[in-house]
Specification:
Elements: E1 3-6, H1 12-23, E2 27-32, H2 35-49, E3 54-57, H3 65-75, E4 82-85, H4 100-120, H5 122-127, E5 131-135, H6 139-142, H7 147-169, E6 173-179, E7 182-183, H8 188-195, H9 197-206, E8 213-214, H10 215-228, E9 237-240
Parallel strand pairs: 1-2, 1-4, 2-3, 4-5, 5-6, 6-9, 7-8
The protein binds NADP nicotinamide-adenine-dinucleotide phosphate.
Length: 245
């Protein structure tokens, strides 16, 4: 039985990853800011998989959030052997000629929080020969997304590549999953069907399989990779977009 932290997991990809892990017998630690929707998500995980998820209500953008999170897990006697850094996305005001404050917020959301979490739980991961997965984006490779998002996800790739050989010395494996446009209810592109149907259609036409990747598909893929339990994946950045580029 392994504990697996999945950040930002009351809905979207994080929720699907938590479900996929629970199906395999791991105990996901799920997080989000809204207490009600997080406890609803924990109930859904229980009803889908028959297994418990541990909900921790937290806003990772707050000062000292990672330390608070660590203390909460220690109170529950939880040492994670898997960390899925899924928290991320575009922040408000992320557009051309980016404001420096917006850039900092994007860096915090897509990069810094994940690094803080890895650092604070590193001793646990070392003891358990743990694995860290970061959820990046193919936007980090083709640079056409909003600037703060593109820059912070590209920096995340550099962090993974740089950390991998160092972490390996301590028996910790780190790799990145880079999804293309995600398909789940309420996702950014799902909302675009109504708000900007032309842009939605253009993106769909560019997708080789004429569909976007389902979040549940990405989740199953990650869990299968974790199941292989091979450190040879260390440092990999794996695109999951159906071959769009
Ligand atoms: N969507 C896409 O098309 C796409 C494509 C490629 C890569 N990705 C990447 O995939 C990952 C997941 O994306 P997604 O679209 O599934 O995300 P999402 O649906 O926007 O995720 C929302 C989740 O994050 C939580 N959350 C948001 N801000 C938080 C904060 N400050 N502290 C704690 N929890 C917070 C939300 O709960 P609360 O609201 O209750 O806090 C909710 O559980 C991200 O890293 C994203 O960059 C997404």
């Amino acid at each position: 039985m392994r504990y697996a932290i999945v950040t930002a997991s009351s809905r979207g990809l994080g929720f699907e990853i938590a479900v996929a892990l629970a199906k395999k017998g791991d105990i996901p630690v799920i997080t989000g800011r809204n207490e009600l929707s997080l406890s609803e998500s924990a109930k859904k995980i229980k009803s889908i998989t028959g297994r418990e998820a541990l909900p921790v209500v937290i806003d990772f953008l707050e000062e000292d959030a990672s330390k608070f999170f660590y203390d909460e897990l220690k109170k529950m006697n939880v040492s994670p052997s898997i960390i899925i850094n899924n928290l991320g996305g575009a922040v408000a005001g992320d557009k051309r000629n980016i404001d420096i404050k917006v850039l900092r917020e994007a860096m915090r959301l897509n990069l810094e929080v994940g690094i803080e979490i890895n650092n604070i739980f590193f001793e646990d991961l070392k003891k358990l020969s743990g694995t860290i997965v970061h959820i990046g984006s193919t936007a980090s490779l083709h640079y056409d997304a909003p600037p703060g998002y593109t820059i912070s996800k590209s920096a995340l790739n550099a962090y993974i590549k740089n950390a991998a050989p160092n972490f390996a010395r301590d028996g910790v494996c780190i790799f990145g999953i880079l999804p293309g446009i995600l398909d789940h209810e309420g996702s950014a592109f799902d909302s675009m069907k109504i708000s900007n149907p032309d842009r939605y259609q253009k993106a769909l036409d560019a997708a080789p399989y004429r569909r976007f990747v389902k979040s549940s598909e990405v989740a199953e893929y990650i869990v299968k990779l974790l199941d292989v339990n091979s450190p040879m994946i260390n440092g990999s950045l794996i695109k999951v977009d159906g071959g769009t580029d």
